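Colleagues,

Please find the record for the two-part complex below.
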Amino acid sequence: MNTFHFTRPARNVPIDRALVGYVGSGDLEVMIDNSDQPQADIYIHSSAEQGEQRWLSIIERLEVAHPLPAMRMDIHDFSATPGVIRLRLEQALEQALAKELSYE
Amino acid sequence: MSNGNDPRLAISFVEQSARKRVEHILDAGSMREMVTPFDRVTSHWLEMQGIVPQFDDGVVTTRGSIDGKSVVAIAVDGSFQGGSLGEVAGAKIAGTLELAVEANQAGESIAAVLILETGGVRLQEANLGLAAIAEIQSAIVALRQFQPVVALITGPVGCFGGMSITAGLCSYLLMTREGRLGLNGPQVIEQEAGVSEYDSQDRPFIWGLTGGEQRDATGLIDDFIDSDVIKVRQKVQEYLSKGVPKAFRSEAIQSSLDRLKKVDTRSQITAEMARAILSKEASL
């Protein structure tokens, strides 16, 4: 198991707690919780062999479409593919930002 | 939610996550989760062995109501580590049932619903899992004197190991066609007895012996149920309203031993032979 921690710049917007996915083969669990920090703290537990650069790439790609809110995000990955990871991350952000999205 | 009478539009209980299953069973808005994923009570034993944990450790423990009747509803998540029970998952179930026992002792009526999707003890934390399963079983035996404890096995994992004994201790046990119930899992038996005796890949053979339909025909469960979420909920309501049964299956020791004596172990038993020995009529 590999563990990583990324600190990313974030927007100061209110969020709801969110939990999506599960730690089953080829899937992952993503939890978003409130944080008193101004940044997005992302903690990753992964069963996959791939390292830090792969996760950083996934996060950087995500940020292009979805600027991150200030939060604590925990990822429990059970060897999901990048496509599944992206979908779960978007699903979690959508839940966390449901209030903001409904105003748009 | 409403799907009329068209079975093609029915929502399958089997395909729901553990948390959704509980939501479907409970009265809308009544679900209150105890020890939520956001409490971050995970298994540090798994982490020490390099295995990714899950925030709820694969168990959802809730309090709520069904038809206005107070219940604790517990679901095991079969997709995480095969629904296996270690220290945290086991303690969550045992603690919830023990709270229900204490409430009943204090005069409050609380029944229980268990949605079992589990391979039994989690081997990575086996001693603690075994101890927890013993506590779960003690709590069920205490609770079933006060209020019904209804267990559901809907699949796809099924219910095996120590938790199959737990299922047998419940007041009422309901299964779907996809559910399986057995002491040892098919792969374990194949590994011990050899593929010629027990082929775990032979699905008709495995479900023929351990599937819900066979378990119903052989009188080892109380009802064979449809997997449509609405029908599952109706069946749970029906069995909760039956109250405490006159006799518990687990107390029928002599009749079970008598039937076991009829088993000829010199050849592999077939589903038909099992039905002849364990038919519902024979169990009465």
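Strands of chain A lie at 2-8, 18-21, 27-33, 40-46, 71-78.

Comments are welcome before we finalize the supplementary table.
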